[in-house]
Amino acid sequence: MPSKDRLKNLIGALCPQGKPSLDQIREYVGSGVTPWSNLTDDQRNMYDSLLKSFTGIAFVRSNGFEFWFIKDFEKGQTISKWYRGYACTARAAIILARMKLIGIQVSFTNKIPKTFPWIDFAERSLSLGKWMFSSWSFQENKTKNSIEITAISKVYQIVQRSPEVWNLKTFVGKSIRPLTDKKTEDKIEMKKEAKHFALADFFKRIYGYTDIQKEISIDDYFRPLN
């Protein structure tokens, strides 16, 4: 763990003009270009050393990624210190956790919330942790009265690290509409709807989440508001 003086110097290097404004933090979260992106090699080594002295834990929630940096994790909850980032993109969650780690708190704004497509968040979760996304495929079936599009997501799950052993899992979603429906020919929208249900199938079977929404209300820093 870096000494207090070295850590103070590091924070000074990260934020030479003082704590960043909310507009700067918004830019960091949106672009991924943060104060630590421009550190010198020595400062980078110190920063990496700082991060390695913390335990990192990540969770997938029903509408966002939750990331924690934990100091003294092995000493238990009463002694350890936890720094949390929560957002609908993994990168934003990690950046917000790092901000807290170096003493920068970002309050929720009172502005009108934005929306983030749940399907975009959910697709990102298919390639995190023990999961590796493989492919999407679609099948179309027409009957006399309806049209059905089935979305099939294939995802690998690692079950053993050394040697690596992967299991292939399949998740399915369907979009069905009557042929008399004016939206029947909008197959792009039907494919999107089928993908949504396939991803909901993944979240229900893997995480147990059933409270799935089409849109996530977020603030300026990609943090879910619901």
Summarize the topology.
Blueprint: H1 4-14, H2 22-31, H3 41-52, E1 55-60, E2 65-71, E3 81-87, H4 90-101, E4 114-117, H5 118-124, E5 131-142, E6 146-160, E7 165-178, H6 187-207, E8 215-218
Antiparallel strand pairs: 1-2, 2-3, 4-8, 5-6, 6-7
Helix pairs in contact: 1-3, 5-6
Fold and architecture overview:
- It is a single chain.
- With 226 residues, this protein is α+β, with helices and mostly antiparallel strands.
- The protein folds into two domains: 98 residues, no CATH class; 98 residues, Double Stranded RNA Binding Domain (2-Layer Sandwich), CATH 3.30.160.
- Helices cover 32% and strands 31% of the residues.
- It has six helices and eight strands; from the N terminus they run αααβββαβαβββαβ.
- Strands 1-2-3 form a three-stranded antiparallel β-sheet. A three-stranded antiparallel β-sheet has the order 5-6-7. Strands 4-8 form a two-stranded antiparallel sheet.
- Helix 1 crosses helix 3 and helix 5 packs across helix 6.
- The model has no long low-confidence stretch (mean pLDDT 82).
